[in-house]
Amino acid sequence: MTLLDSWTRGEHTADGVNHPTYRRGTGPGVIVIHEIPGITPEVIGFADEVVAAGFTVVMPHLFGTPEAPASGANILRSIRQVCVSAEVTKLATGVTSPVSVWLRSLARGLHAELGGPGVGALGMCFTGGFALAMMVDPAVAAPVVAQPSVPFAIGRRRAADLNLSPADLDAVKQRAAAGCEVLGLRYRDDKATGTRFETLTREIGDRFIRVEFEGKGHATLTAHHQQAGVDRVLAFFGEKLKP
Predict the structure, then answer these.
(1) How far apart are alpha carbons 199 and 201 in whole angstroms?
(2) What are the backbone dihedrals phi and psi of residue 168, each rounded to the nearest 5 degrees, phi first?
(3) Which domains, from first to last, does the chain contain?
(4) What is the pTM of this model?
């Protein structure tokens, strides 16, 4: 038996783009977007915790091999894959990754099916900023950014960039002003996250909830697991999605 045997495999198509999905659970919807190198055992373990807390979780498969461990070889293989992908940005500033259009469509479909105030969206590492881009759509009521790391933090400008176009940043600020909060998690000395938390604090003020851990770890919810972080994410989803 494999880790994904209890998950239902499906797919979602939007604007001609198709990606597989894995779904499990009952209750309000939460989209968990995997990190590099893909849907690893640690990502599945975190998603299982969200399911156990009473949510319907959908994991899109964007790159990598599902269930493959986060080994050095698999990380390098996934990095090569995303570096040639037109769906994600790597170094450009002031740009929203095109895959966000597909992710917003996935969120709208899940919300239309399950109802309620909206769905949760969580991105981590390479996909951390995707949850912010999804927040542009009103279907997303609980965005979570875990150690957002794109664009790669090379230079001061990229380190501060939120992986959003000016129009999408304006939309995020408008939603925050209307009451939508954003939860962020990182290790305080994680260089990969750059100064994005400071940018978020400047742009949306106290609507950005910062959860920071001491040290130089990176993957707050998976490889460098912080249970306090997982518990805060689950509480946030409960507050926003289970009125």
Answers:
(1) 5
(2) -70, -35
(3) 8-241 (3.40.50.1820)
(4) 0.97
